């Protein structure tokens, strides 16, 4: 399934340059003025996973099919967006549709690239965007709560539960904190997600640094890392300019280029890993002579639901799952070796799929 990640931030922080690099397209115009990205550009990218290549080689698969994720480059936000300033209303509508937010922060000095706030302060930039999102969430909840109040007072249990949840989140927002920091119970999690709050989404802070700091970060990115840690969020360091250069190279040339500047992997890999962690996603594999394919599910998913990612019929008629751990598949050189060594397990409906599992589902038509 992958996930849908919205790239957000103030104008001129490098969002569109990063989007172009990540998707290897020129769909988003990277220009030195606000609102150059008006309609959200959408790009699907394959998720790199060395395990899939290894499995394909052992299984002699004719084709490799990685899982995919979607990046959405959303128009730059400015102060006052919650009141419709700039492209605020459009920005807020687009961001509601994503699963997670990659918040790009400018962590570099460059006199040739203007800053909408007139100074380089990534933590303040993050607070500007977060404040606008919190104000929008607060207004949205207060409007939605009004009609439910009457129903709750009339004894409607569902309305009462919804109002109690909204009031809990409203208190947090009014205190200047994001909705995701509210103390949500397990029973409330689904209802909370259904609220589609802007500040309820997981956040990954992307520190866009100058080329020389791509491997180590700088003072600005260190400030962001400290802020992220305090919030329980994640942060990564990327040089959008380097990513743009790397995206134009062939795979073997990419490794050589990255090695020359002291990097072992692209920023895309780091973003994906951090994004997966944010959304608690894992990967399982199917391997056969026709193809080796990666599938993405949420951690904690049981076998029938994991099978449904391939086809809903697999869940409906689920019987059991032939399961091999990735390390066993590699160590024993494939399915036959695992069967002989007793490393292929037959798992039932209650089995929780583990990251890296190689699965074959048995189901009734």
Polypeptide structure, described:
The structure is a single chain. The chain has helices at residues 15-23, 50-59, 88-95, 122-153, 157-174, 189-194, 219-231, 240-246, 251-260, 267-279, 303-308, 312-316, 326-331, 335-340, and strands at 4-8, 41-46, 63-65, 68-73, 100-106, 203-208, 234-238, 281-287, 291-298, 318-324, 345-347, 358-363. It is of the alpha/beta class and 365 residues long. The strands form three sheets. A six-stranded mixed beta sheet has the order 2-4-1-5-6-7, sandwiched between helices. The protein has a three-stranded mixed beta sheet with strand order 3-9-8. It has a three-stranded antiparallel beta sheet with strand order 11-10-12. 38% of the residues are buried. The model is unreliable at 25-39 and 84-88 (pLDDT under 50).
SSE layout and pairing:
Blueprint: E1 4-8, H1 15-23, E2 41-46, H2 50-59, E3 63-65, E4 68-73, H3 88-95, E5 100-106, H4 122-153, H5 157-174, H6 189-194, E6 203-208, H7 219-231, E7 234-238, H8 240-246, H9 251-260, H10 267-279, E8 281-287, E9 291-298, H11 303-308, H12 312-316, E10 318-324, H13 326-331, H14 335-340, E11 345-347, E12 358-363
Parallel strand pairs: 1-4, 1-5, 3-9, 5-6, 6-7
Antiparallel strand pairs: 2-4, 8-9, 10-11, 10-12
Helix pairs in contact: 1-8, 4-5
